[in-house]
Structure formats: structure tokens, C-alpha cells
Design a protein that fits this description.
Elements (H helix, E strand, L loop, with lengths): L3 H62 L4 H11 L1 H4 L4 E7 L2 E7 L9 H13 L1 H4 L4 E2 L3 E8 L2 E9 L6 H29 L12 H18 L3 E8 L2 H8 L1 H18 L5 E6 L2 E7 L3 H16 L13 E7 L7 H17 L4
Antiparallel strand pairs: 1-2, 1-5, 3-4, 4-5, 6-8, 6-9, 7-8
Helix pairs in contact: 1-6, 8-9, 9-10
């Protein structure tokens, strides 16, 4: 017979084990509940961040829908991009063909970097478009996001990476860049559609009526902002002789070649016009008379080196005149007359 004391000790031992087991299970259940609660809290926080990011993107997209021209797109980007990039400098270069133009560039540390220093960054980002589109390409100073819409590269958006972007911020900026790309491409298509009825079919330059209105607008802008504005006029030397000796089809081919050269040499913001016959007019915004002279000399050299067919003249030369718009000047006809007089002085001086 088992002594009562031994039986009692066994019962107490079994009870202690059961109590310990129960306490352990309760503790583990509390730990699991806490872990589940923490996971749920993290998941809820992530869902809240995703919701806020989606809301920002929707607001951003709705704002960009109203961008029907370049100035309005610039204003919207200046106002809304800080919600994604904070106080960091942000820049956007647009691309058409081989040309890069600044759409947006904010000042960082009191200095504005020249577009020429940003172009190499944009080119590197475009070369890495597959890997850089979502998270961007890291450079020494910037995170660069290629802007691609419908498979068409339309530009690059860069963010000054100080302070360093977090992974979440990079993801948000990448999503915003995709929206910016669509807005830029839509604006390009809208501009192309508008210009179809405003361009000369032979040279691709604007017609005279549109250019007169564009010059009036630029005169008003120059007066308002105080920025320089210049106008360049030129015509093809001995063009009548080309038509008389080679025929009008060859003359048309020369005009078309000159139009293509203007498109290749000039900035996208410069307004190119076939003013009449073989006479062209170019509006050069934000360009001093010295800069206009440099543009004119570059055009003169490039046109003289045009590769022409065997049936065309061996070379084509042009005579050019430039004028700077005077402060506060608003009379279109006076500006054009001054450029025209400079053109004929160049002809009297020997052409080319």
C-alpha cells in the first residue's frame, strides 16, 4: 500500500506540471496574439500608406489632365511634385528626337544647374530604361527616372538624392514619374495635332499667319518678364536661278532640305516659319542679339554643308539678318522690318 504522503506528493507534482503547462500555453497564446496584433498593425499601416499613395497619385493625375500646354504643365508640376519629393530639387528634361529641353528645374542650394550638366544624367537613365523605370537610376547626386509612355521615351525626371530617398519614397516617385510621362506624351500629341494645320507641308515650318501671332505673344512675354528676344530672317541665295536652271521640283527639294536642317539645328522652343517663297523667319526666345548672331552663323555653315543630290546645285547658301527686340517693344511689323533690313544688308555685302 502506497503511503498517503507519497500519494499526496505525486498529486502535487502532477498538479504543478499541469499548472506549468497551462501557464506556458497561456503565455504562448498571449505571445501569438501580440505577434498577430503587431502583424495586423503593420499590415494596416502598410495598407494606409498604399491608400495615401494611391490618393496622391489620383490627385496628381487629375491635376495633370488640365495641362493643355507647356506653361500649365510646368505650373502643375511645380505645385504638385513636392508631395512626392519633399524639399528636394526636382528637374524634368523632355526629349524629342535627339534634343533635350528643360521642362522643370528647381533651384537647389541657391544654384541652378545648367541643362548641359543634366543631359549626361538623362542619357544614362535612358540607356538603362528597363532597370531604372520603377526605382530610378542612382547617380552621384541624383535619382533619375526615365519617362516612357506607350513605349516612347519622352524625357527623364531627376531627384536630388539629399536627404536619401527611402525605398517607399523611390517607389512613390517612380509611380509619379509614370504619370508625368503620360502627361508629357499627351501634350506632345496634342501639340502635333494643333500644328498640323499651322505648318507648311513642304518645309515643316509654321506658316506666316501663325508665326505673326507667335511673335506677338513672345513680344508680350518679353515685355512682361524682361527676358531677351531676338528674330532671325534669311533667304536662299540665287533661289530664282535654281528654279530656272534646275526646275521647280529641285527648288522644292532645296526648300525641304533647308526645313529639315532648321528642325535639326534649332531648339524646340524656337519658332521656325516659312515667311514666303524662299524666305524664312525664326523667333529665338530668351536669346540675346549675340546669341542670335551665333545661331545665324551656325545655320549659315550647316546649310552650306547640306548633302544635296546630283541633280541639285553643288551647294546652297543663305544670307541672314538678326535683330534684338528692344525693351518694351510690341510692334511686330517694326521688328520684322528691322530683321529684313539686316538681311538685305547681308545680301548687299556679298551674300552667304
Amino acid at each position: 500500500m502506497v503511503p498517503a504522503s507519497v500519494f499526496k506528493s505525486a498529486i502535487l507534482g502532477i498538479s504543478a506540471i499541469l499548472i506549468a503547462t497551462f501557464v506556458f500555453h497561456q503565455y504562448r497564446r498571449r505571445q501569438e496574439s501580440r505577434t498577430e496584433a503587431r502583424a495586423a498593425a503593420v499590415e494596416a499601416a502598410q495598407a494606409r500608406v498604399r491608400s495615401e499613395e494611391l490618393q496622391r497619385l489620383m490627385t496628381f493625375s487629375q491635376a495633370l489632365v488640365n495641362a493643355l500646354d507647356r506653361p500649365s504643365l510646368q505650373q502643375i508640376l511645380c505645385r504638385t511634385l513636392p508631395t512626392f519629393v519633399g524639399d528636394r530639387e526636382c528637374w524634368v528634361l523632355t526629349r524629342q528626337g535627339q534634343r533635350w529641353d528643360s521642362l522643370l528645374q528647381e533651384v537647389a542650394a541657391g544654384t541652378r544647374r545648367p541643362v548641359e550638366s543634366l543631359e549626361p544624367l538623362a542619357i544614362r537613365a535612358n540607356e538603362s530604361v528597363e532597370s531604372a523605370q520603377q526605382r530610378g537610376l542612382s547617380t552621384e547626386t541624383d535619382i533619375c527616372f526615365p519617362l516612357v509612355a506607350g513605349g516612347t521615351p519622352v524625357g527623364v525626371m531627376g531627384i536630388w538624392n539629399t536627404p536619401t530617398l527611402t525605398d517607399a519614397e523611390r517607389h512613390a516617385v517612380g509611380a509619379a514619374a509614370a504619370v508625368v510621362a503620360v502627361a508629357i506624351r499627351n501634350l506632345q500629341l496634342l501639340q502635333e495635332l494643333r500644328e498640323l494645320g499651322l505648318r507648311d507641308g513642304l518645309t515643316g515650318c509654321f506658316n506666316r499667319a501663325h508665326t505673326l501671332q507667335a511673335l506677338q505673344n513672345e513680344l508680350q512675354r518679353a515685355r512682361r518678364t524682361g527676358r531677351p528676344l531676338s528674330v532671325l530672317m534669311f533667304d536662299i541665295d540665287h533661289f530664282k536661278t535654281i528654279n530656272d536652271t534646275s526646275g521647280h521640283l529641285h527648288g522644292d527639294a532645296v526648300l525641304a532640305a533647308v526645313g529639315r536642317q532648321l528642325n535639326d539645328v534649332l531648339r524646340s522652343t524656337d519658332v521656325r516659319c516659312r515667311y514666303g517663297g524662299d524666305e524664312f523667319l525664326v523667333i529665338l526666345p530668351d536669346t540675346s542679339v549675340l546669341g542670335a548672331q551665333q545661331v545665324a552663323d551656325c545655320l549659315r555653315r550647316e546649310i552650306a554643308n547640306l548633302p544635296l543630290s546630283r541633280t541639285m546645285p553643288a551647294s546652297v547658301t543663305v544670307s541672314l539678318g538678326v535683330t534684338a527686340v528692344l525693351p518694351g517693344e510690341l510692334d511686330v511689323s517694326t521688328v520684322i522690318a528691322r530683321a529684313d533690313e539686316a538681311l538685305y544688308r547681308a545680301k548687299r555685302a556679298g551674300r552667304n
